[in-house]
Amino acid sequence: MFRQTTTRTLSIAAALAGLALYAVLGGFYSREIVVEIVILAILAISLDFAAGFGGMISLCHGAIFGLAAYTFAVMTAMWDQPGALAALAAIVVASLFGLAVGAVTSKTTGIFFIMATLAFGQMAYTLVFKSRWLGGDDGMAGLPRFDLAWLGIDMGSSLTFALFAILLIAASYIAAAWVLRSAFGRTLAGIHANESRMKALGVNTVIHRARAMGFSSLLAGVAGIVAAQHTQYISPELLFWTVSGEVLIVVILGGIGTLIGPMVGAVAFVLLKHQASNYTDYWHMVIGLILIAVVVAGGRGLYGQAEHWLGRGARKAEGLRRA
Amino acid sequence: MLEVRQLCKSFGGLKVTREVSFALETGERRVILGPNGAGKTTLFNLLVGELAPTSGEILIDGHSVGGLSVSQRARLGLSRSYQRNNLFEDLTIRENLLLAVSAGQAKTAWMVRDSFRDKEVRETVSDVAEQVALTEVMDSPVRTVSYGNRRQLEVGLALATKPSILLMDEPTSGVGPGMIDGFRRLLQSLPRDLTVVIIEHDLDLAFDVADRITVLNFGEVVFEGTPEETRGNKVVRDIYLGDWQSDA
Predict the structure, then answer these.
(1) Do B104 and B152 fall into the same domain?
(2) Domain boundary assignment for chain A
(3) Residue B196: its H or E element
(4) In this structure, are B192 and B223 located in the same domain?
(5) How would DSSP label each residue in A129-151?
(6) Cβ atoms A67, A239 nearer than 8 A
(7) Does the ipTM surpass 0.85?
(8) Per-residue confidence of chain A (323 residues) as pLDDT tens digits?
(9) CA distances from B108 to A231, A280, B158 (A)
(10) B56 and B100 co-located in one domain
(11) I need a surface site. Which of A83, B132, B162, B197 has the fewest CB within 10 A?
């Protein structure tokens, strides 16, 4: 069951402020990093919703993310539609794809669910890769960013875009946290904890799992829209299954089932990647070693572990105070 | 209310339920007796849909429920408690009841409103908590409370959906005499229009609460009658009450 504790609210506020500060004080390069973090973080929050709270470890979130980016690209660059409409279409396509995957796979669990989502994701990847009208393996370039000139905002500026992206991560987190504390979120947690009992209580677990995939995909769609506007270029690589794998690593690294952990994981992942790659080409190995340490330590993740230690300290202090 | 016709279940060559038939009136209290392995829990699993019968029919209010899933049957008012606790271990007792009551009131799909803050849900949770005597431990995680409390919660979850038919699988297994008395009082306090089927090993309790008793042996109904008739029946004494009688 998801709990938005004061510690978590403070942590998220600190993380967002830190990112904003880094974007404001840093140069172009640091703003690029901030957007990279944001995209990964939204995607990780999306996957944590499905995997951490619904027990659905999906390997097609990369594909959903990519489909949203492609929808945005087709709507804007190809069909000259306004950015807002393109974004809406991207989110709808992502949600519907997620809902469909969820509906088809909702009776499978564990390794079979993982394999089924992998298959769906790779199908979407192949489809995009083979589609000449989508640019095939060349992808699509020249994508526009949201046009907010009427508000006097220039989205072409790297700082503005970075701050806009940070706003979206806050919105995504709030949306996910809100839904997790709704009747639907409670039900999802119940299904994750004890599916057979929920069925015996009269809950249609199939529909709820499908909806959870749909909502999770909506968030992945938001990440896809940011990604398409960030570099203003997309390629089928966005849909490849290794993207999903990387997101899963980020979720576990930060703390699965905490919602804020995945954000912390995204910050750690991107910063480590850029720092470690200054010294070695084998930066994946550095991440791998940390991931192993995190899993061996109990799988709580960086944030989950910190929360665990904090909680233990608080319980000890409480014990001392009572004694 | 609840009727079973010629119900059979086989696992390979093993027939665990053989031609079981019975019919329950609304509000009836039926106790199912039988030695270990008689197929009592299997019968429950068939009734709620966790197992599919090899042949035979199950009817609720005259309608066959054979094609319905576990959750569909639950929404028709069929509820069960389990012989082995089947709870939400990492959640608190309150959260366990909140989940069950929300499900019972079909408040599971809202994506904006929180069922846990819903007034009607919270009121029902307090009522059920009082019914199964758990008000003192509401905010304790299930894994930290006593076995007795878990047994109470097991029954509480089944009651929380406000069923019209309640199936209880050995609700007093493994608990002391004090709790058996508490359970007897709980049964007496249940609404008279609630149909209850109980698998029970405590014979004093069984004879005390039952309107009628069905005895299973090797998957077959070998006897059905009132508690008085059951006490006097020779077949029943031989297969099930023999030891109990000689002990007494």
Answers:
(1) yes
(2) 6-240
(3) strand B195-199
(4) yes
(5) HH-GGGTGGG-EE-PPPP--GGG
(6) yes
(7) yes
(8) 898 999 999 999 999 999 999 999 999 999 999 999 999 999 999 999 999 999 999 999 999 999 999 999 999 999 999 999 999 999 999 999 999 999 999 888 889 999 999 999 999 999 999 999 999 999 999 999 998 888 888 999 999 999 999 999 999 999 999 999 999 999 999 999 999 999 999 999 999 999 999 999 999 999 999 999 999 999 999 999 999 999 999 999 999 999 999 999 999 999 999 988 888 888 888 899 999 999 999 899 999 999 999 888 887 877 777 66
(9) 41, 51, 17
(10) no
(11) B162
Residues B189, B152 share a domain: no
**Tens of pLDDT along A235-274?**
999 999 999 999 999 999 999 999 999 999 999 999 999 9
Q: Show which residues on chain A lie within 8 Å of chain B, measured between beta carbons.
A: 1, 178-179, 181-187, 190, 193-194, 196-205, 208, 211, 215
The DSSP secondary-structure symbol of A77 reads I
Q: What is the CATH number of the domain that holds B29?
A: 3.40.50.300
Asked whether residue B67 falls in the same domain as residue B142, the answer is: no
Q: Report helix, strand or coil for A113.
A: helix
Q: Which residues of A touch B104 (CB under 8 A)?
A: 201-202
**d(Cα A284, Cα A15) in Å, to the nearest integer?**
24
Nearest CA in chain B to A184: B109
Residue to mutate among A184, A201, A209, with most B CBs inside 10 A, is A201
* Dist. CA A34–CA A38, nearest whole Å: 6
pTM across the whole model: 0.92
Q: How many domains does chain B have?
A: 2
B91 with B167, same domain: the answer is no
For residues B186 and B218, state if they share a domain: yes
> Cβ separation of B111 and A182 shorter than 8 Å?
yes
- Shortest CA gap B231–chain A (Å): 34
Beta-strand pair B63-64/B55-60:
antiparallel
**Which one of B162, B186, B205 terminates a domain?**
B162
> In degrees rounded to 5, what are phi and psi of residue B220?
-110, 145
**pLDDT single digits (tens) B160-210:** 999 999 999 999 888 888 889 989 999 999 999 999 999 998 888 889 999
Sign of CA dihedral B123, B129, B133, B138: negative
For residue B195, what are the domain limits?
1-77+163-248
Last residue of a domain, one of B135, B162, B189: B162
Examine the domain organization and report whether B174 and B248 are in the same domain.
Answer: yes
Residue A35 in tokens? 């957007």
To the nearest 10 degrees (0 to 180), the angle between helices A261-279 and A6-25 is: 40
Nearest CA in chain A to B77: A202
Q: How many CB atoms lie within 10 A of CB A321?
A: 7
CA B223 to centroid of chain Cα atoms: 20
Q: How would you label A8-26 residue by residue, b for 16+ Cβ within 10 Å and e otherwise?
A: beebbeebbeebbebbeeb
